[in-house]
Amino acid sequence: MASAAATAYDGNRPHAFRHADPGDVDYYALVLSWSPTHCLTEGRQRGDEQCNSGSDADFVLHGLWPQYDFGWPEDCYRGPRPWVPSDVIGEMRGIMPDKEIVIHEYKTHGTCSGLSPAAYFAAARKAYERVVIPKGLDDPETQRFLSPEKIESEFMAANDWLKPDMIAVTCRRGNLFDVRICFGNDFEPQACGANISQKRLCPLRRIAVPVP
Hints:
Blueprint: E1 16-18, E2 27-34, H1 35-46, E3 59-67, E4 72-74, H2 86-92, H3 99-108, H4 117-130, H5 135-138, E5 144-146, H6 148-158, E6 167-172, E7 175-183, H7 198-201, E8 207-209
Parallel strand pairs: 1-4
Antiparallel strand pairs: 2-3, 2-7, 5-8, 6-7
């Protein structure tokens, strides 16, 4: 059932609803960021840890984003900025790039889940660990050019539970940017809503997959 906030959707492009009611969401998007593109476009210049020389980071967990059928909530808190305990941050090390992104993800997205930081990141880890990264994308030797549909098909081949309406690829400046996979409120896989539209997120016929 569409959430109350989603009824305000204006019929154009899905957009954010700030300070919506926590926990009132329709589904979640697990966002797996392709680290080489992030480093190529901004991360290396900014000095992000995942872009250090010798790093073999490829797909990293960017976040678990609550969604409405149309649009999505953001910053669902009042008062002081939410606090994420250091032990929760430490537990995400290795699958998320750095502590700043962990804190940002809870502030912007996690607060909309209605879950505590510990419960939200436990759910994010559970969804992340459900996904097997295709070997052909996990450690490419040379830059390749693939269609978004080919990238999706490789994910579906590696994960027999994954269906075409559960996944979409996004691109930035002609490069693979991230892969989004949808989960229900029970954190079981489900079809995506209108927000996770392949045509909207990356309409290109072929995109580059930069090397780590």
